[in-house]
């Protein structure tokens, strides 16, 4: 008995000594379902890495952006791993604020990352953030209403087809809008949609010399088409609708078509929440035959700030959370439908995932149709599909979004909105030293 007590005491002392030497890393992340699930599954990581302790700081998206941006810009050093988006990565990497991820392990298989996603998270061929999940945008439509209209949705529709279909599907008497699109102002709201849409019309935010392009005919065609389409076939009060509002309308059977994030597919096809779950089809975002589609590209990713003192431990965690092994772990616990989407080619080759997610192929095709390094028909000096990867874009994008939302609401004309956007962009780029 004494020997057993002595042995337990020695073991306890050893455990305490080990714990005292364990390295602790702090992870800042967004409070969405996939990240919450990741926290619940981290026992798998700590079992394999008992010398690393994980501390979580889980925040709402806007608060997360503010906190991590302030911390990394001031070299505050609060976080060892940050959850950031495709917008931040190229900007911060060029400022030398992020560490390149070149020690993810021999079995990580970085080449398996979908090229379009990897491209948005890389600078000069080096990966600076590992994608946790990715998305593009595509057309979700009511197959029954398309049949009733006597039309067949192509896998790769044009904007002219979308307008034709919307006109025929609109049924005001029965509360059906032919199309639902974002109208709520914001760089990540209506401007995510409109910037991606403008790419397919041949428009661009800036020319090669950073001169704003809102006074060019391509932007006039984009905004006029959008406003006319929404006035003829969109829902009432569309200038206040973002992702969530349009999701609710579609699930309630009030939209013939909805062009938005690929992650919405699992929501509109969920019979628990969608009245049209068994009637939904999917197609690529529209184009105008110019070589670019109106779809965006985004990834929530894990990055390591250059100021961390615990880079090796942080990179081990990033490797675990974005690995093939993690996808298999989620599938074993939660089912294949809940595996974080849009990051690895191997997931889309998996028959079990394809069966659980009938929209998988169209999601992958949509992601592959986006190219953040060459987002426009004409050449541009910036990276980004639905955004411009410069620090000034957040403020400027929201200003332009407010102007375009007002045009949709009928508070100004398309021409006035474009003129004011040109003036605002010119002032911003002059003040920022991009142009004289």
What fold name goes in the CATH topology slot of the largest domain?
D-Maltodextrin-Binding Protein, domain 2
Protein structure class: alpha/beta
Query: What is the tally of beta strands?
Result: 11
Order of adjacent strands in the largest pleated sheet: 2-1-3-11-6
Q: How would you describe what is shown here?
A:
46% of the residues are buried. The strands form three sheets. A five-stranded mixed sheet has the order 2-1-3-11-6. A four-stranded mixed sheet has the order 8-9-7-10, with helices on both faces. The chain folds into two domains: 2-135 and 298-356, Periplasmic binding protein-like II (D-Maltodextrin-Binding Protein, domain 2), CATH 3.40.190.10; 137-296 and 391-431, D-Maltodextrin-Binding Protein, domain 2 (3-Layer(aba) Sandwich), CATH 3.40.190. It contains 19 helices and eleven strands. Helix 18 packs antiparallel against helix 19. The longest helix has 20 residues, at 2-21. It has 436 residues and is an alpha/beta fold. A hairpin with a 2-residue loop joins strand 4 and strand 5 (126-127). 44% of the residues lie in helices and 14% in strands. It has helices at 2-21, 33-40, 43-48, 61-73, 88-94, 115-120, 143-148, 159-169, 190-200, 217-233, 243-251, 265-268, 311-321, 324-334, 345-348, 351-356, 360-368, 393-408, 414-431; strands spanning 23-30, 52-59, 81-85, 122-123, 126-127, 130-135, 137-142, 177-180, 255-261, 280-284, 298-303.
Key terms for this structure?
436 residues, alpha/beta, D-Maltodextrin-Binding Protein, domain 2, 2 domains, five-stranded mixed beta sheet
């Amino acid at each position: 008995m004494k020997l057993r007590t002595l042995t337990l005491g020695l073991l306890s002392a050893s455990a305490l000594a080990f714990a005292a030497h364990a390295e602790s890393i702090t992870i800042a992340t967004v409070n969405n379902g996939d990240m919450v699930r990741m926290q619940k599954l981290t026992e798998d990581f700590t079992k394999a890495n008992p010398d690393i302790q994980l501390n979580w700081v889980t925040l709402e998206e806007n608060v997360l952006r503010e906190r991590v941006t302030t911390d990394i810009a001031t070299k505050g050093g609060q976080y060892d791993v940050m959850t950031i988006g495709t917008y931040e990565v190229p900007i911060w990497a060029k400022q030398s604020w992020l560490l390149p991820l070149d020690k993810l392990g021999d079995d990580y298989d970085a080449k398996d990352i979908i090229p379009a996603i990897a491209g948005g998270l890389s600078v000069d061929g080096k990966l600076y953030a590992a994608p946790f999940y990715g998305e593009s945008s595509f057309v979700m439509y009511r197959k029954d209403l398309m049949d009733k209209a006597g039309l067949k949705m192509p896998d790769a529709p044009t904007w002219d087809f979308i307008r034709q279909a919307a006109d025929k599907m609109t049924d005001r008497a029965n509360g059906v809008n032919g199309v639902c699109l974002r109208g709520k102002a914001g760089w990540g709201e209506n401007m995510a949609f409109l910037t991606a849409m403008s790419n397919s019309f041949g428009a661009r935010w800036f020319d090669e010399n950073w001169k704003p392009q809102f006074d060019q005919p391509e932007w006039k065609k984009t905004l006029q088409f959008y406003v006319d389409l929404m006035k003829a076939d969109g829902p009432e009060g569309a200038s206040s609708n973002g992702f969530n509002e349009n999701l609710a309308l579609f699930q309630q059977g009030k939209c013939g078509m909805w062009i938005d994030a690929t992650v919405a597919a699992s929501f509109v096809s969920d019979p628990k929440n969608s009245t049209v779950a068994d009637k939904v089809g999917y197609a690529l975002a529209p184009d105008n035959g110019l070589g670019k589609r109106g779809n965006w590209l985004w990834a929530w990713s894990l990055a390591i700030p250059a100021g961390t003192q615990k880079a090796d431990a942080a990179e081990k965690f990033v490797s675990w959370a974005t690995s093939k092994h993690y996808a298999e772990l989620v599938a074993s616990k939660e089912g294949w439908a809940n595996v974080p989407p849009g990051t690895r080619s191997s997931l889309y080759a998996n028959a079990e995932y394809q069966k659980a997610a009938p929209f998988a192929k169209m999601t992958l095709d949509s992601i592959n149709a986006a190219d953040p390094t060459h987002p426009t028909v004409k050449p541009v000096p910036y990276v980004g599909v639905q955004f411009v990867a410069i620090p000034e874009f957040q403020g400027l994008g929201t200003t332009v979004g407010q102007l375009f939302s007002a045009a949709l609401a009928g508070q100004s004309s398309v021409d006035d909105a474009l003129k004011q956007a040109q003036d605002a962009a010119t002032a911003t780029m002059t003040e920022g030293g991009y142009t004289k």
